[in-house]
Structure formats: structure tokens, C-alpha cells
Design brief:
mainly alpha; Arc Repressor Mutant, subunit A
Length: 145
């Protein structure tokens, strides 16, 4: 299974916010994590709508975790960020034509594998990731994704 950049970037943003515990700006996240500002703005908006981070405007404001890191399950973050977790066409929101449907054992096997993947992520919390991850480098590579 391959996750989108949005999930990857969202998890990086959350780990950094959990490590600093200080309000961070979009510019600061972009610079510190080596991500484009437009990606960060889009992801931050989605994490805010999901209630995972808080956004405060004005002087002294910024982005902070809204939940305790021990309450944030990685599986929940991935489900929030991924538009479609279907690993094969018949599991996607708009399945394509398949000559084996409606009775296909492959579809069941792939659905089971996807559930196992997400179940594994559900056992991991943001707190687990914060403990096991070094702080972001101060000077990430110049090219932002």
C-alpha cells in the first residue's frame, strides 16, 4: 500500500508540532520541514477541520496540537488525509470494471490487507512517534517539495 504525500507530510507536521509544543507558523513549518508552503497550508487546513490541530491568528498565534499526542492514532490521521484507501480498483470509491465481480476472492484479500495495515497504524500514537523521532534539522535541504 502506498500513501499519498499528504499523509506523509501531515504526519511530519504533527510530529514536529508535538516535539516543539510551541505555536508554529506555516512559514516556519515549511522552512523547518523542507516542504512547500502551499502543501503545508492545504494540509494544515485539513488537520484543523479534523480537530487535530488548533489554528490561532494574530500575534502570538500559530499552529498547535489540539489533542494530546497519546490520543492521536496514526490510522485516524491516514484515514483523514487519504481520499481513497482502495489498493485495487474494485476497492476504490468508484470501482472500475472487473470480470470477476461480484464474486472475487482477490477483492476480499485486498480489503483484509488494507484493514490490517490500518489496524497496525491504529496501534501507534503520535506520542510514540514523538518519542522515537529526533527533532527536525534546523537547515533542511534548500529544495522544498
Amino acid at each position: 500500500m502506498r500513501l499519498s504525500q499528504a499523509s506523509d507530510f501531515a504526519l511530519r507536521i504533527l510530529v514536529h508540532l508535538g516535539q516543539t509544543r510551541q505555536p508554529e507558523t506555516v512559514d516556519g513549518l515549511s522552512r523547518r520541514l523542507g516542504l512547500s508552503k502551499s502543501h503545508v497550508m492545504k494540509i494544515v487546513a485539513q488537520l484543523g477541520r479534523a480537530g487535530i490541530i488548533a489554528t490561532t491568528r494574530g500575534r502570538g498565534g500559530g499552529l498547535t496540537l489540539k489533542k494530546d499526542p497519546a490520543e492521536v492514532r496514526l490510522g485516524a490521521v491516514v484515514r483523514e488525509m487519504e481520499a481513497d484507501l482502495g489498493v485495487v480498483a474494485c476497492l476504490q470509491h468508484e470501482p472500475g470494471d472487473c470480470v470477476f465481480l461480484p464474486r472475487c476472492a482477490l477483492k476480499h484479500a485486498m480489503a483484509q490487507a488494507t484493514r490490517a495495515f490500518l489496524d497496525s497504524l491504529d496501534r501507534q500514537t503520535l506520542a510514540d512517534m514523538i518519542i522515537g523521532t529526533q527533532p527536525a534539522r534546523i537547515d533542511p535541504p534548500a529544495e522544498a517539495v
